[in-house]
């Protein structure tokens, strides 16, 4: 999730340093915030700089409290709490731990409670471990991601948990692949940014650092 992008970032770094993408770019640089800058030099003298940006992070959760072996949590980014109940998750602690988001079951609720949507603060994560084992493995501040595989729908449509904005990152990679055989005048810098879900932080930092002549953000939107 936002602020903890290292695992996903390493896949990008490996692809462009030791993988097929190594020959597509002139330089790879990672700034102190974690943004990955993939530079392809232009052929002109004093060329203009084009910045393409897509964010790598995804919305997620963070452990806010541990109560009798169950985890309380808060959102990272603008997550829709209405879809959380019953979701499988992975808690990234001393080791990756599978869990499930639950709440008070209907047969223990009061009649008026059954008519209301369950609020985020009423949900907990069950790891299936004893309170002692949970205390030994998990800390407040550990991050949590939704466990959800990509799903193929009809008509060549796909659904997944982090299309926002891994789809944009894929678009940047494909752009660099297509540019590898072009002798373009402008310098192209594809930036895989971090912490977008926390306030577009990576995009701000990289934009000021690169000072491009033109910038283009690649992100998702709702389809019709």
Explain this structure to me?
- The protein has 224 residues and is an alpha+beta fold.
- The chain has two domains: 6-58 and 162-217, Aminopeptidase (3-Layer(aba) Sandwich); 60-148, Peptidase M42, domain 2 (Elongation Factor Tu (Ef-tu), domain 3).
- It is built from four helices and 13 strands.
- It has a six-stranded antiparallel sheet with strand order 5-4-9-6-7-8.
- Strand 6 (88-92) and strand 7 form a beta hairpin.
- The radius of gyration is 21 Å and the shape is elongated.
- The two termini are 27 Å apart.
Question: What is the compact description of this entry?
Answer:
With 224 residues, the chain is α+β, with helices and mostly antiparallel strands.
Descriptive key words:
alpha+beta; Elongation Factor Tu (Ef-tu), domain 3; 21% helix; 29% strand; 224 residues; elongated; Aminopeptidase; six-stranded antiparallel sheet; 2 domains
Distance between the termini: 27 Å
Q: Number of folding domains?
A: 2
Strand order of the largest sheet: 5-4-9-6-7-8
Structural class: alpha+beta
Query: Main beta sheet, described?
Result: 6 strands, antiparallel
What CATH calls the topology of the largest domain is: Aminopeptidase
List how many beta strands DSSP finds: 13
Strand portion, in percent?
25-35%
Q: Give the name of the CATH superfamily of the largest domain.
A: Zn peptidases
CATH structural architecture of the largest domain: 3-Layer(aba) Sandwich
Order of helices and strands: HEEEEEEEEHEEEHEHE
What sort of overall outline do the alpha carbons produce when their principal axes are compared?
elongated
Radius of gyration: 21 Å
As residue ranges, the low-confidence spans are: none
Q: What's the rounded overall pLDDT mean? A: 92
Question: What's the helical proportion of residues?
Answer: 10-25%
CATH top-level class of the largest domain? Alpha Beta
- Give the number of helices: 4
């Amino acid at each position: 999730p936002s602020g903890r992008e290292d695992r996903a970032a390493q896949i990008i770094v490996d692809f462009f340093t030791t993988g097929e993408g190594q020959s597509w770019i002139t330089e790879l640089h990672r700034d102190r915030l974690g943004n990955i800058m993939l530079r392809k030099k232009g052929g002109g003298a004093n060329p203009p700089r084009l910045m393409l940006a897509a964010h790598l992070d995804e919305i997620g959760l963070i452990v806010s409290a541990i109560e009798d072996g169950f985890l309380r949590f808060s959102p990272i980014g603008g997550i829709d709490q209405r879809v959380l109940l019953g979701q499988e998750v992975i808690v990234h602690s001393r080791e990756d731990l599978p869990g499930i988001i639950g709440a008070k079951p209907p047969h223990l609720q009061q009649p008026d409670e059954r008519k209301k949507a369950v609020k985020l603060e009423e949900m907990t994560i069950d790891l299936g471990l004893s309170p002692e084992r949970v205390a030994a493995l998990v800390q407040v501040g550990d991050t949590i991601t939704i466990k959800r595989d990509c799903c193929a729908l009809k008509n060549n449509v796909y659904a997944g948990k982090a299309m926002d904005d891994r789809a944009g990152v894929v678009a940047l990679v494909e752009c660099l692949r297509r540019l590898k055989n072009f002798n373009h005048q402008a310098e192209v810098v594809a930036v895989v940014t971090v912490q977008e879900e926390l306030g577009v932080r990576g995009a701000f930092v990289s934009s000021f650092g690169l000072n491009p002549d033109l910038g283009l953000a690649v992100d998702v939107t709702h389809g019709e």
